[in-house]
Design brief:
The protein is an alpha/beta fold. The protein has ten helices and 14 strands.
Length: about 300
């Protein structure tokens, strides 16, 4: 796939001397879902705002669909839909009118059928005549998503879209995202719900202190950094790990009722068979055993710890 968003040597500095972004380079491929992960203050929202032309870069270049976001702002911005963190809507305008107005802002011809389809997808059709001030917070979040999609963008930014919303909206939103991806729309997602990123993202970018730590295919990232753990529940708890088992990477948890063995999924041999034999030889009797695999959140936390 070719890059639809290209960020080259991007820096954003403020008059106070704070560098929100430091020499960021990022290629976002057409039709992919990219999860942009980072702690609070890492630069996620600044990066999105700069790509969308809301904030001016201090140096570097951003190109969206072949258009420089500074020198060709209008054609670049017309390709982008943005769902911001903050909910800001005209309170006295109806849902249908505010979404249709957003479409017109980008020079798109009226298309009532498309607006209806969009509102139905987001469970807003029954609220189409309601003023936005009459809606709940979750419903207003749905309106923001509809406004971002009103002009049929090729690139969609979702900045913490699940923050403070109900389970139903999250389900509807991810159904819409799946449909957009099927139509070739590129989606960039920031979220605190890392399990959502793990479920839907194609690639993951991790940002911290204004720098991109890595950009990698999700599956290869989890294979490269992921570990598996074997939990060994014992019939009788142990006070200490027997000396005969000191050569294994074992942790004693639950007051010695469980031993946890970590192993590399990439290894030719896991060592589990030998461990089980040595456990038996050491006189330890198993009550149960189960495996656990690293989540994307585990990997994310580990990467931030290494970078700090």
């Amino acid at each position: 796939m070719s890059a639809i968003v290209s960020v080259v040597n991007l820096t954003k500095a403020y008059a106070s001397g704070v560098h929100a972004l430091n020499d960021v380079n990022l290629e976002i491929e057409e039709g992919e879902i990219l999860a942009l992960l980072g702690p609070n203050g890492a630069g996620k929202t600044t990066l999105i705002s700069t790509i969308c032309g809301i904030a001016m870069p201090t140096s570097g270049q951003i190109v969206v669909g072949g258009h420089d976001v500074v020198t060709a702002f209008r054609p670049a911005r017309s390709m982008i839909g943005l769902v911001p963190q903050e909910i800001a809507l005209e309170p006295f305008t109806t849902v249908e009118a505010t979404v249709a107005f957003s479409r017109g802002l980008f020079g798109k011809a009226p298309d009532p059928a498309y607006i209806e389809q969009l509102l139905r997808q987001l469970s807003l059709w029954d609220k189409r005549s309601a003023k936005t001030r009459e809606l709940s917070g979750g419903m207003r979040r749905r309106v923001l998503i509809a406004k971002a999609l009103a002009h049929e963008p090729r690139v969609l930014f979702l900045d913490e879209p699940s923050a403070g919303v109900d389970v139903e909206l999250r389900r509807d939103m991810w159904n819409v995202v799946a449909g957009l991806k099927a139509r070739g729309v590129t989606i960039i997602l920031t979220t605190h719900y890392i399990e959502e990123a793990e479920a839907i993202a194609d690639r993951v970018a991790v940002i911290n202190r204004g720098r991109i730590l890595l950009v990698e295919d999700k599956a290869s990232l989890m294979k490269r950094f992921g570990k598996k753990q074997l939990r060994l529940d014992l019939q009788v708890p142990v006070e200490t790990i027997p000396e005969a088992l000191s050569g294994y990477d074992l942790q004693r948890v639950d007051n010695g009722a469980t031993l946890v063995f970590s192993y590399d999924t990439r290894g030719a041999r896991t060592g589990i068979t030998r461990l089980l034999a040595d456990l038996s030889a050491a006189g330890l009797v198993l009550r149960d055993l189960q495996t656990q695999e690293s989540t994307l959140e585990d990997i994310f936390v580990g990467l931030l710890s290494e970078a700090s």
